[in-house]
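In the laboratory, one determines a bound structure by crystallizing the protein with its ligand and collecting diffraction data. In a computational setting the workflow is compressed into a single prediction: the sequence and the ligand go in, and a structural description comes out. We illustrate the idea with phosphoric acid mono(formamide)ester.
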Amino acid sequence: MNLKGRHLLKLLDHTPEEILYLVDLAAELKDKKKKGILHDELKGKNIALIFEKTSTRTRCSFEVAASDLGMGSTYLNPTDSQIGKKESIADTTRVLASMYDGIEYRGFEQEIVETIAKYSKVPVWNGLTNEFHPTQMLADVLTIREHFGHIKGIHLVYMGDARYNTGNSLMVVCAKLGMHFTAVSNKKYFPSQDLIDQCQAIAKETGAIIDFSEDPIEGTKGADVIYTDIWVSMGEPDSVWEERIKELSPYRVTSDIMKNAGDQCVFMHCLPSFHDLNTGIGKQIHEKYGLTEMEVTDEVFESSQSIVFDEAENRMHTIKAVMLATLKD
Ligand code: CP
Ligand code: NVA
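The predicted complex, in structure-token form:
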């Protein structure tokens, strides 16, 4: 498998074999890291990390992975760079591509990361756009495989806003890898018909099942994984909170939902999560709307069925695999 020079913009561009290759490579790199085996195979290279939105996991994953691989990294924060304000994306890209061996971009429309890729002579990695979050998917697949021992046929239920980056990307990766994806939400929050059609076409080839339910009980019965994400994503206006709370509260992941799914079921979340009042936004929402937890209850988040911190750790190993696969000679 040769992925040298390839961009990672959205998993729709990759074959199932390529996705599984990256997950296998991540498992190998994780093993090396745990055993203390040095793997600075990209010594002398440098990467640029453009973040137009904030981050904990993705940024730290890129920085730690780059360091483990022997690379230098430069973090461009949401306010300090000239991108899009004083200099066009196309011009910034050509400057960065002349100095760095790879470019990560986190920001708004998918079109922006696609433009960066168009002008870049070095690999570009999508660290989250409004539409897709591909590096998160690799970590999720690795985590699911570590837990269940396999991927094909796993029934993943996504509850909440399924038409944003995480929900969209989960539908794509499930389609690619022959999994069963169910979006359980108010139908207004289902992915776009265009993306559903693309995933249904992929599913015909891979044996995946893609379906939808507005009923939280019927939709989660027998699920292997219940996955959710915050109800209001980065970059969305505060004014949508009221509507989201009203429309998505029936789809909160609770202990009853987990029980309904069954003992085999694990809980996953890309994080960050509003499961208690220990966050600034959580407190504000509590003061305004009286909620003490949002997309998932604290009980589920802290339960033994929750594998969210294994999932978060795997961000680093999988991002490392993406960089190694696309940069190594
Ligand atoms: N899951 C994820 O992308 O987390 P960060 O926003 O902290 O990078
Ligand atoms: N949907 C969330 C994902 C965060 C990792 C957001 O875009 O804010």
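The two ends are 13 Å apart (CA to CA). Keep in mind that any predicted model is a hypothesis to be tested, not a measurement.
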